[in-house]
Amino acid sequence: MKPDLFKNSYLKSIIVFLVIFFTIYGVRTANHTYDFIIHGKEYYPDYPRVDGYEELVLTYIGSSSCPFCNTPTVDSTLTSLSKEIKDYSMTNKINYTFIGLSNEKNKIEGVKHLLRLGINFDEISMGNEWENTSLRYYTNTFKSEYATPQIVLSKRTYSDSLSKSPWVTVTDEIILGRYIGIDKFETLDLAKAVKNLN
Q1: Are residues 135 and 190 in the same domain?
Q2: What pLDDT is attached to residue 108?
Q3: For the chain, what percentages of helix, strand and coil (3-state, to nearest 5) are there?
Q4: Which parts of 64-107 are beta strand (E)?
Q5: 3-class SS at 110?
Q6: Distance CA 168, CA 22 (A)
Q7: CA distance 84 to 189
């Protein structure tokens, strides 16, 4: 006799949640398929991380409560810039990582905000407002403004730190460009921004 899964209240709750979630947030458009949720897609760099390895990083800093972060300009700029970086990385055989950070009190609203954007983030972080660990890193450590929307372009260098861990780790990260405010998003010269990645 087959077990009746719906008699298990825990499993029933999970199934109901998944049905509601995918009905509301599953697939909004063909360009907004959230691979890391729907397909369980894992991130693997195209080139192995070895000693001396370099990686381009696009970090978006936004907020669900910021009216400027919810404009079509932010979405279109991130989508276009991420495509340019992908093309650049293929031509120059260098990996890339896309990071989404949201300044939030409510973590759920932060997740929704980042998922609505047309860029498939490899990492996301939200909660604890500006004291969020990742937000502090990209604002406090790099002496930036506490402002949204914001794009940070950087380059990481990995080194073999076998004495500390059994794999290569980030030992240096330099800022290549920073664009703060909706006006900078509207006037962002994509070709120039990518050229500065050298």
Answers
A1: yes
A2: 92
A3: 45, 25, 35
A4: 95-102
A5: helix
A6: 37
A7: 11
